[in-house]
Amino acid sequence: MFCYTELMQSLIDLYKNSEHLHHAYFFVENKAKGLVEKLKDFLENTVGVKTAGNPDFWHGEFKTLTIDDARAIMESANRKPFETYLEARLPSKRIFIIQADFITQEAQNSLLKVFEEPTVGTHFFIISPQDMLLPTLRSRMLVIGGESQKSIKLESILELKLVERLARVKEITEAISDEEKTKQDAIAFLNQVESELYGLGVEKSSKVLELCQEARASLYDRGAPVKIILENLLLNI
User: Fold this and answer.
1) What CATH topology corresponds to 4-150?
2) Which of 72, 129, 131, 227 has the lowest CB atom count within 10 Å?
3) The whole model's pTM is what?
C-alpha cells in the first residue's frame, strides 16, 4: 500500500505531464484525512480551485455510499456550475471529493452513468481504504494506489467452511488486540463479505446484506465487540 504522500505525488506528476485533470480518480488509502488535506492543497495551489467558500467544491464522507447517496451526487453534478471563467467563457471546475469505506454495487452502477458521459469541467476524487471497484466503473476512472492489489486474487470468504471463516475472524481480532491490525482491517473483511454477497445477486442475498449493514454500523461504535459482531454475521450467512 502506498502512503498518501506517494499517491499525491503520482497525481501531481500526472497533472503536470498532461496539464489537465482526468474526470474521475480513485485513491486506495486508509489515511483518508491526510490525503484529503494534501488533495485540497493540490487543488488550491496547483490547479487553482478554491476549496473554501466555493459552491463548486464538495466533500462528503460516508461509511457506506448507498444508491441514494450516489443519486444525490449525480443530481448535484448535473447542475450548472455557480461560477464561470468570464474571459474564456468556460464553466469553472466542479470538484467532488468522496470518502467512502464501502460503495454498494447499486451506487457504483449509478455513478457509472455520470462517468460514461462526463461533464466538461467536473472532476471526481473517490477515496476508499479498499480497491473494490466494479470493472465497469474502474475502466472509467484513473486508479491511484490500487495497482499493487490488482494482481492479488483474494481468497473467497464465502467458499470457506464455517470453521475456517471463524478462524479468519479470530486471526483478525487477535491481531487488533496485539495492535498489529486496526478496526479498519475488520471493516475490510466485512467489505469483502459484502462484495461477494452482491456477486451472488442482491435479491438472493438481501437479508444477509441487511445484516452486513447492521454489522457495519455496530463496528463503528466505540468499544464495539468486533469478534462477536463478525462471528454473528458469519453464523447467519
Assistant:
1) Rossmann fold (3.40.50)
2) 72
3) 0.67
